[in-house]
Amino acid sequence: MRVPLTWLKDYVDIDDLDLEALAKVMTMVGLEVEEIRMVGLPMPSGEKHEFKYTGFSWPEDKFVVAQVDEVMPHPNADRLVLCRLNDGNEEIIVLTGAPNLYEYKGKGALEKPLKVAYAREGSTLYDGHQPGRKLTTLKRMKIRGVESFSMICSEKELGISDAHEGVIILDEDAPTGMPLVDYMGDAVFDVDTLPNMVRDASVLGMAREIAAATGKELKHPNAAFEMTGPSIKGKAAIEINDLELNPRFVLGLIGGIQIQPSPYWVRRRLNLAGMRPINCIVDATNYVMLELGEPLHAFDYDILLERAADETPTIITRTAKDGEKLTTLDGVEHALDREMELVTDTSGPLSLAGVMGGEESEVNSNTKSVLLEGASWNFINIRKTVSKLKINSEAAYRFSRGVHPALAELGVRLCLKRMHEWGGGQVAKGLIDNYPAPPEDPVVELSTEWVNNSLGTDISAQEIADILIALEFECEVEGDIITAKTPPHRLDIHTGIIGRADLLEEISRIYGFDKIPSQRLNQPLPPQQVDPSLGMEENLKDLLVNLGLQELIAYRMTSPEREARRFPPDFEVPDQQYIEIQNPITVERRVMRRSILSSMLEILEYNSSLGQRLALFEIGPVFHPVEGQQLPEEKMMLSIGLTGLREKPSWQGSEPENMDFYDLKGVVEGMMQGLHIADVGYQASEYPSFHPGKTAKILIGDLEIGVMGEVHPLVKANYEMEEPPVYAAEIELKPLLEAGSILFDVEAVPTYPPVLEDLAVVVNENVTAAEVEAVMRKGGGDYLAKVQLFDIYRGKQLGEGKKSLAFSLTYIAPDHTLTDKEVSKLRNKIIHLLDQELDAKLRS
Questions:
Q1: What is the CATH number of the domain that holds 15?
Q2: For the chain, how big is the Rg over CA atoms in Å?
């Protein structure tokens, strides 16, 4: 929220605080100041500041309040005028093309001079004709034969808003010759309001926090005024269908108004706060919303009478009917459902409750009477409506976080007063207030002992009470017990132990987090208990990073349609149940994922055009519904994805090749070795997402824990990926980590030399290298230290259906040097077992 400094000063005296000190106070109580925009006030001195500053200053000798006494035609241009202007020192002819001065052209001396913001020669200000905000300096020049060296300013040129279609016409009481910075210089605080502090999404709310933190008096707006019109009784009625959705509804009536611009000081404040001024009636509702934090809505009362056929209009709050439609103030027609709360009359919908008004009953230039609404709404219902309709407004921002019903009456009274002051008319006596069940404001009891033990402070009971009283709690102190009643503008204070925690936060904020002393714990920390599964998971992540992969964290939310892309188009996708999200941020993220492979393919799709090599992994849960249980089974999974070049291009070496299946297998094998899992196997398999013949299941012993392979070309076509093939693996995490070990047996480095030899055998095509290796290890026993495949050969001389596998064998004994006889005996045993078990023949 953007808050002008001058508006804050209406409610709390902060003249003794400079901008840095004030911003620090606000930030320390939870109102984080992200930026301070200077609108005329001098920039703070020095080069280093704690906060970001933007904008520019209006030097007193360059920018002043001036008055235009006459608007004359330009001799050479119809769209330019010459203004006879008095800046307090001298009379000057100023050239301008502002359209809002055309109506005064050629009328001679004005009966009431126009008060304007005037920039003298040499002033630096924003260029009103350039996009964005670019500074320029006024220089003497001739335009269409008339010398120009100064300027009557628009709001854009002064940094107030982006409006530059006309010059600023100040209020009549602006003193001619006064430095502009003294008249309306300001600074705007851009404050990040926390979701649980929506009570401070108002000028009064922020002033309350500042007053409490600085010990100053909070000044409340005065809503008292005389209602001179006839009674509102019989002019309108209220009917609430569901008190849970609409606890309170207040109506006020004003007639005989004149739709006109608000006073300039009002329009300037609204612009600085980020709201566009419209007219005195709409501006009054927006002004009071920013002032108090209570959103209001104005209906054209005559339109309501017309819809009611000149009967008493009845305002009804109810949920929408399925298919019912409403066109809101932004001109958008919305299709509604039965969970959305509406404000209606007997003819149909008038507005989307707590979100935005309807177009048909809005205030317009012909409006003479206004029925003013102030209400309270269920914040969860408002949040759901906003999410479904993708519609945002200042009102919805506040109501979706919770606005206390007590603010409705004050907001209506204060707004009626503003409407009367700015638009004239008569305010009907009394209000119509439907408030059958006011909530009971929580009462919380806490002790100084508990507060001081929790914070490590030494605060007395009276100090605690004073802090809460400054925040407008009603407090009673008996000994060291403080009883605090929550003020009727807050919904964030609970009862019991949660209420005590709420008050503890309030006390620590206002007392000052920086004043809470740092203390050592009374007792040493207990010894850390290692979580083996977490340790193994972190070890696995380190292993995969060391193998050249990058960790990612993907969305857990998806949609069934997105997950179905991991199957070929002709594959019949199984009918699977998903865990549905009640309030999804988008229809694309409405269920919890069942497949981690799908998430990996989406990430590869998104990043495939951003780099020549992608090597990624994710560890995360998938969510499978369990019949009869509310919570799903959250199975932890590991996914690996590879695509692109094996190595990044370099100025030296040959052209790099794309990764293939064996790069993926190498990563999996490296992972298994790093986890010290010995009994690992790979078997050819089929899986719908992977390429037939290029897919393998991963085994630990006889347990299948995952699958890996090249992504099926038809599946790859479902994603917008680059040309290189994509390789992926999907592995269950639990059995993988259970089989691994952080601690493992080690052997001494051999002191005796190894014996190296190569052995090539001819086997049937369906025999795998892993099977041959297993038989070799069986025959070689403990002396066979290493077996490594280094060549595969197929040729006519081997015969059809045959292949040659060449292995490098390493023999070693821990206690002596192996003799030729011992090695020969081992070799013969290996050859015999190969022949016997695999029908493998030694290749000559």
A1: 3.30.56.10
A2: 39
Per-residue exposure over 525-552, b if at least 16 CB sit within 10 Å of its own CB, e if not: eeeeeeeeeeebbebbeebbeebebeeb
Q: What is the pLDDT of residues 71-106, one digit of tens each?
A: 999 988 888 999 999 999 999 999 999 999 999 999
Same domain (yes/no): 332, 472: no
Is residue 691 in some structural domain? yes
Q: Sorting pLDDT into bands at 50, 70 and 90, what band is 572?
A: confident
Give the residue carrying structure tokens 């740092």.
518
CATH code, domain with 313: 3.50.40.10
Higher pLDDT: 729 or 741? It is 729
- The residue with tokens 């009557």 is 152
User: Are 29 and 68 part of one and the same domain?
Assistant: no
- 778: phi then psi, degrees, rounded to nearest 5: -60, -40
Does residue 414 sit in the same domain as residue 464? Answer: no
- Asked whether residue 176 falls in the same domain as residue 32, the answer is no
Cβ pair 41, 272 in contact under 8 A: no
Name the nearest CA neighbour of 209 among 397, 28, 408: 28
Q: Are 456 and 515 in contact (CB under 8 A)?
A: no
pTM of model > 0.70: yes
Asked if residues 356 and 399 have their Cβ atoms less than 8 Å apart, the reply is no
Which residues constitute the domain of residue 635? 532-739
> Which residue has 């006073």 as its token pair?
263
User: Do the strands 591-592 and 557-558 form a parallel or antiparallel pair, or are they unpaired?
Assistant: antiparallel
Query: What is d(CA 148, CA 78) in angstroms, rounded to the nearest whole number?
Result: 17
Domain assignment present for residue 521? The answer is: no
How far apart CA 486 and CA 503 sit, in angstroms, is 10
Q: Which residues contact 772 (CB under 8 A, 6 or more apart)?
A: 761, 763, 805, 807, 834, 838, 840
Q: Answer whether residue 222 is part of any domain.
A: no
533 vs 519: CA distance, rounded Å: 34
Q: Which of 767, 781, 744 is nearest to 841 (CA)?
A: 767
pLDDT tens digits, residue range 741-788? Answer: 877 778 888 889 999 999 999 999 989 888 899 899 999 998 999 999
d(CA 204, CA 221): 8
Strand 229-231 relative to strand 426-429: parallel, antiparallel, unpaired? parallel
606-645 pLDDT, tens per residue? 998 888 899 999 999 999 999 888 899 999 999 999 999 9
| Cα distance between residue 582 and residue 338, in whole Å | 15
Domain count, the chain: 6
Identify any residues that bridge with 788 across adjacent strands, giving them in sequence order. Answer: 808
Domain shared by 168 and 296, yes or no: no
Residue 123 CA to residue 137 CA, distance in Å, equals 6
Pair 689, 673: CB distance under 8 Å: no
Same domain as 806, residue 768:
yes
CA dihedral over 47, 48, 49, 52, signed as positive or negative: positive
